[in-house]
Amino acid sequence: MPAMRRHYALNGLRLLHSTARPGAAAKPAPGGEHAGIRAATLQTTLTDSPKPIVPKEKLVFGHTFSDHMLAIEWTAGGGWGRPQIKPYGPLQLDPSCSVFHYAFECFEGLKAYRDAQGKLRLFRPDRNMARLNNSAARLHLPQVDGAEVIECIKELLRVDKRWVPEGQGYSLYLRPTLISTENTLGVHRANSAMLYVITSPCGPYFPTGFKAVSLYCDETNVRAWPGGVGNRKLGANYAPSIGPQAEAESKGYQQVLWTIGEDHELMEVGTMNLFVLWRNDAGELELVTPPLDGTILPGVTRESILELARGWGEFAVSERKVSMKQVAKASNEGRLLEVFGAGTACVVTPVHRIHFQGRDYDIPLDPAHPESQAGPIAARIYKTLLAIQYGDTPSKWSVVVD
């Protein structure tokens, strides 16, 4: 950490403050040309106007932001500059920046949790950093040293610790974002960029909480395609989904079920990975999810669910192509047991109904869980992941901040 800093109390917290003056420009980190990110050079400038904490019961996902943010600038000639924690506020960017014109942007989503002892925890942040680099590579944006960025994020969490709400189901959502800041028009590799991280206290992703949702199978629009960027977390993947999502909602469904091809092969559900539990054609109990064929986002929660289920060894676990026609057939034959989505924001979201080719297919729900309407496997996975994320169950996936 920086050698020159001082401590002082703010609302009962022990915060860090560097000697940098507010608004000071980021200086290049030591190391010369093409320098990498170095958490040891981090500078922290605290806000002099801390915001009041919003009661957790009133939190709406993505609407409230903490006092500070992390920002690191990059240039092709000098590499990464000095990381800075500074008051949350607007970015000053030229109107010609290529991020505005050509979608030179990728991002990540992860959460910080407060355990029963008050310690802060991150869930598999190394996987988010690896995926960020994978997304950046497709855009020819600079790579980051994931371990160094995680150390910077830990310091941001220490500074804004009071913003991490208590209680299971509540967390601090982190949004690392990498953008091109080059201020020239023209589609070419960026010569300058910025990585920044903002944080947002949140409760359940869906206002209904851990409840089953309905899906509308979109038979016209396609989320991703072979050779495209469906396996990267780019902003360009999300904006085009707004129209189909609005259409699904107008028909009385909460999320879009994305498929591809004449047989409507399953892809994703809304912004989540998709899982199906059924008895397959061979009569075998199987949990199946679409494969990482370049069209599917490699979700951290998806990966974790697969590892958990395979570790249980109670049913087959597969990554393979499955069509909506096969799901409909299984439903007609009484072999369809559960369908659920999975992602960082929602963790697990059970599904109770899918509309496909003019008909609704009802998904069986476990009467033992009337409060959530979840099937037994979805409920078990949800509870298991929460126990790890909040530190109730020891796991290498849970990284303690302090």
Plain-language structure description:
Belongs to the class-IV pyridoxal-phosphate-dependent aminotransferase family. Keywords: Amino-acid biosynthesis, Aminotransferase, Branched-chain amino acid biosynthesis, Pyridoxal phosphate, Transferase. With 402 residues, the chain is α+β, with helices and mostly antiparallel strands. The chain is 20% helix and 30% strand. The strands form 3 sheets. Strands 3, 4, 5, 6, 7, 8, 9, 10, 11 and 21 form a 10-stranded mixed β-sheet that branches. Strands 12-13-14-15-18-19 form a 6-stranded mixed β-barrel, surrounded by 4 helices. A hairpin with a 3-residue loop joins strand 4 and strand 5. Helix 2 packs across helix 3. The two termini are 14 Å apart.
Task: Label the structural class.
Answer: alpha+beta
The CATH class name of the largest domain reads Alpha Beta
Radius of gyration: 22 Å
> Major sheet: size, sense and barrel closure?
10 strands, mixed
Low-confidence stretches: 1-33
Distance between the termini: 14 Å
The topology string of helices and strands comes to: EEEEEEHEEEHHEEEHEEEEHEHEEEHE
Oligomer: single chain
Tally of structural domains: 2
If you average the pLDDT, what whole number results?
90
CATH superfamily of the largest domain: Aminotransferase class 4, branched-chain amino acid transferase, N-terminal domain
Number of helices: 7
CATH architecture descriptor text of the largest domain: 2-Layer Sandwich
Principal-axes geometry comes out as globular
Strand content: 25-35%
Pfam family, one: Aminotran_4
InterPro entries: Aminotrans_IV (IPR001544), Aminotrans_IV_CS (IPR018300), Aminotransferase-like (IPR036038), B_amino_transII (IPR005786), BCAT-like_C (IPR043132), BCAT-like_N (IPR043131), BCAT_family (IPR033939)
Family: Belongs to the class-IV pyridoxal-phosphate-dependent aminotransferase family.
Catalytic activity: L-leucine + 2-oxoglutarate = 4-methyl-2-oxopentanoate + L-glutamate; L-isoleucine + 2-oxoglutarate = (S)-3-methyl-2-oxopentanoate + L-glutamate; L-valine + 2-oxoglutarate = 3-methyl-2-oxobutanoate + L-glutamate
